[in-house]
Structures are given as C-alpha cells and as structure tokens.
Amino acid sequence: xxxxxxxxxxxxxxxxxxxxxxxxxxxxxxxxxxxxxxxxxxxxxxxxxxxxxxxxxxxxxxxxxxxxxxxxxxxxxxxxxxxxxxxxxxxxxxxxxxxxxxxxxxxxxxxxxxxxxxxxxxxxxxxxxxxxxxxxxxxxxxxxxxxxxxxxxxxxxxxxxxxxxxxxxxxxxxxxxxxxxxxxxxxxxxxxxxxxxxxxxxxxxxxxxxxxxxxxxxxxxxxxxxxxxxxxxxxxxxxxxxxxxxxxxxxxxxxxxxxxxxxxxxxxxxxxxxxxxxxxxxxxxxxxxxxxxxxxxxxxxxxxxxxxxxxxxxxxxxxxxxxxxxxxxxxx
Length: 332
Description:
Layout: E1 2-7, H1 15-28, E2 33-36, E3 39-40, H2 46-54, E4 63-64, H3 72-86, E5 91-95, H4 102-111, E6 115-121, H5 128-138, E7 142-150, H6 155-168, E8 173-178, E9 186-187, H7 188-194, E10 198-201, E11 209-210, E12 212-215, H8 223-227, E13 233-238, H9 242-249, E14 255-259, H10 266-275, E15 279-281, H11 286-293, H12 305-318, H13 321-328
Parallel strand pairs: 1-5, 1-6, 2-5, 3-4, 6-7, 7-8, 12-13, 13-14, 14-15
Antiparallel strand pairs: 9-11, 10-15
C-alpha cells in the first residue's frame, strides 16, 4: 500500500485541503483512498471535515499530540492506527499534526514508510532557507513543497524569486497555489454566530458560503449596480431600510444581516423567502457589526463542498500531480 504523509509547521497552511482534495482526485482516478489524522490537538476539527467532505469516518479518534515529542511507543501507536485505516485501500493519506517538530514529522514518515509533501503557507518573507530544514529531516522521502495561498500581487516575486531559489538549493516545488476567496469563505451559520444574530428566514439554508461582505448605505450608484458587483455575498444593512434590502435581493445574495435589532417589513421578508435568502438580525449597529465581521474569517474551516471543489481545481491547474502519482503508483 502507498502512504502519503502531509505536513506543515503551522496550522492553517492547507494540510487538510490538500489531503482531502488529493483523496478526491485519486478516487476519481479509480483508486481506493483512505484519509486519517492520527494525532490532533483538543480543538482540532479536521477529522470531522474528512467525514463531511469525503464520507470517510475515522475508525478511532485521534491520539493527543504528545508534549514531549514522538517516542518509539507513540510512533508504534500511530502506525497501528494507520494500519487499521488501510482496510484494503490503494492509498493512505496521513495528515500530520501542526504541533509536531520537523524531526517528529520525519520520524512518523519513516515509521509509516511514507512519501511526504510539505504544505508551506505563503508569507511575504518566505525564502528557500526557511524550507531547507524539511529536506534535511525528510531526505529521500520528501516529494516536494506545495506553496499555498500566494497573494495576487506577490505571484511574480514567487515565480522569479522563491521558486528559482528553491531549485538552486535542491528543493522541489510541486506547485504554487494562488490565494482564493472561496477558500477563505465562511458560512451563513458562522456569520450568525459571530454577530450573535437571530434568524427571521432561511434558517435551513445556513450552509451557504459567503465570499464577500457589502454594506448597504447611501451612494450615487443604483443599488442594482452596486450589489451586482459581487455574487456569494452577505449584505449588511439597517433593518429599517427596505429600499436597500430589496436592491440586494434582486442580485445574487447569500444572506442579509440586518442591524439595530430591527425586523424588516413583511414585503422584504416574503421576497427573501421567495429568493431563499436567509435573514439574520443583530442588535448592534451597522458600523459595529462590520467591525465585528473583521474577525469572522478566523472561523473559516476547510469543511465545505465548494471549497473541496475549488482546491481540487487549483491543484489540477497549478500542481505537479504526476510527481505524486508516480511515487505512489509502484506501491499501489
């Protein structure tokens, strides 16, 4: 059986996104794929994400990340958990916990006889030297690095700077993925919880994914032109402004957040129900609500089907999947 170990040195880099998307892609290739996260912290929700996105329930809960590193006994426990997850599959994808050191990741990859991919969440100060420790620890098991989340205006710096620098140091890149709004999106339910809101309509539609926030206020442009700028949006507007609310409802809107604790008029409520747009009412004013929403992205998780679809698309477009397939195929 082929084993792929996915690691990074910080949370939020994209390990779950890569693991779930590769599992989906390999399954489309006709391979039997299992995904497991054998070690996790107390607040880790990645196991639930795999169950939600892939229907792949982990047979046993993850072990707690040890504070003193990976001992031989812990490595054996992880190996046993992974062996149980195999269940006759062709490929096993193992997500490593972010709290582990590079040395501990290497120990687990060795114990599992796995090839390894390192997900490096992009930062403006990233350089090849900061990645070289992984190569020293992983050795020949390292397939390469996936640079994830490159911001729009730094793509050129990566192309002419970071990637050639990595190549000069013998560090293989298997892909450089751009930052994508959909992957940063939050659901209606996460927004409602964040603003301590109550539902007036569409409570059954709370899985909608919001990529943009638009404030409804006074402006020179027509409401249709303004709200038509973005799809997959949440509109934040005072509850006593039916004119603005109706303009938003005439464009693709994922949800409306009405402020100052004011319910809309019945006509707006009926239109929202007709268009299947959830309405959330919060007691705070519009400015306070927008300030609060500055932090809603911290609730974003890779647990939505639209995110799985988008990340898989980005991998096919920007990553060298054949390198991974070739390394896994002889064993599979």
